[in-house]
Every structure is written in structure tokens, then in C-alpha cells.
Amino acid sequence: MSLKDSPSDQQLHLAALQGNIDLLKRTIDGGRVHIDSQDKEGTTPLILAAANNHYGCVKELLDQGASPHIRRHTGTCALFFAAQGGFLDIVKLLLDKGAPVDIPSHLSPLQDGGTPLFVACQCNHLAVVRELLGRGANIHATMADGATPLFIAAQNGHCKLLRFLLSKGANENQIRKDRATPLWIASQMGHADIVKELLDAGAQVDAAREDGATPLFKAAHKGHVEVARSLVNHGATFELLNNGESALHAAALFGHLKVVKDLVAAGANVNLKNKEGQTPAELARDAGYDVIAEFLMKARPSYQTTV
């Protein structure tokens, strides 16, 4: 593969970057140019044109034999950048010319391994996602950390896209390497609409990450009131988790009064002690949340007896 080391190659890169189709054609017609010349990052003219939504330049380069398979040193290819930008016409053109639909963006174990489908999901380009899946993209593919396209959609709060992925068979309970599920990440991020969609699709309400934290625990920890309510309504546990804490402990420790009140109203045990032997009220008091501590103390069941 030629490096971009000649004036003609440099001119070709500039034309592709700027979308100057006339200059691009003249440079190619000059005959002293490498159509797939790469700069020091491994970028080709085709990648530049695709990344900047220059359809005419992309078509001309492909017609002149440019390869859609070449990746930059980071592992990203022309299709990846077109998907990232939401450039549907360029995505279609690259696929028509043989671009691999599931080419991963990694050339070493240190890179994330996301495919064009992942970046389209991350950037909420539903039309591109639909096209990629229609061309055979693997909806169950995973990144280096085990995240799926559905996980990425849930993490970024793209509800319409997530609903589409579910309709195409995405697994709502597929775990990341740390055992986090799409519901877990949506709960942590506070995406109430996503949480509802996943629960309605059958997501396991108490599926915990490897550290023992459940979706409700994370919602309580972050103070996401609506998310916590949805999880409670679907039967999320109030009990002590494998991490030695409960959702009520998390809400109390981090000062989320509304979540505390909701959990208590739903039946959470205010006397439950964590692995350190502390109640939610004691945690709140130690953290300086006196209002929460007082509320929890008043919510304790009365053991007074009458004579």
C-alpha cells in the first residue's frame, strides 16, 4: 500500500476531503496517483470522502477501483465513517461495491471492535441501522467488552432505535463481560423510556452486574425517580444484594429523598442492615442527609404494645 508521498497523492487526498469532484477526476486522469494511497494514520481518499459525505467523490473513487476494505490504523473503514455520519446513500453505495457489512474497528486487542452497526446505533441513525441489518449485519455482534448494539442503544437513550432492534430479535438480556445488561445500563443512565421498553420486552428486572449491583440499586444510587418506580412496579427486589447493600441504602447514602420515600412506600425495609451493620437511616445521617435520616427513623415500625 502506497503512502501519501507524492504531490499527486496529496492532491487526491485534498480533493476527497473537500469534495472537489473536478479536481479529484483531473488528478486521477493524470495517471500518476495511487487510488488507495494512505496518510500517516492510514486514511485513504475513499475514507475521507465517505467521512465527509461527498457522495460524488465516493462514487468516482469506487468506479476507479478504490478498495472499501482498507482500514485506518485505528481499524475504521469508509463504511464505518459513513455509518457514523448517517450518510445513507454512501452506506448503500459502499455496500453495493462490496464493503464488508460487519468489518470490526480493531486491528489490535486494545481497540473496541465495534462494527458499522455499533456506531450507527451510538449515533442514532435508524435508517442506516435498518440498511445494515437488511444487508446481513449481525445484530448479536459484541464489542471487545461484550456490549451489543442493543446495549449501545440503551446506554445512549435511543428509544425508537432500541424498539426497532428488539423487533428484529435483539436479546434484551444479553450481558456485557461484566454481566451488565441493557436494562442495567439504561437504569444507571436514567433513561426511563428505555427502561420501560426493556421491561415490557421481558428484561430480567434483577439481573445484576458482577459487583452485585442491580438496575434498581443503580437507579436508587443515581436518584432516577421514574426509573426506580418502573423497576419497583415490575417486582425489583428490596433485599440485601450480593454487594452487601440494598437499593434503599444506596438512595439514603447519596441523598435521594424522593427515591427513599418511594422505596419505603413500596415496602422496603427501613431496618435492614448492610454488610457493615448499618441501616439506611444511619448511612444518611453519616453522609449529612439529616432530612432523609429523620424520615427513615419516623418510618420505622412501632413496637409499642398496649396494656
UniProtKB/TrEMBL annotation:
Coiled coil: none annotated. Pfam families: Ank_2. Keywords: ANK repeat, Repeat. SUPFAM superfamilies: Ankyrin repeat (SSF48403). InterPro entries: Ankyrin_rpt, Ankyrin_rpt-contain_sf. ANK repeats lie at residues 41-73, 74-106, 112-144, 145-177, 178-210, 211-243, 243-275. Transmembrane segments: none annotated. This is Ankyrin repeat domain-containing protein 29-like isoform X2. The lineage of its organism: Eukaryota, Metazoa, Chordata, Cephalochordata, Leptocardii.
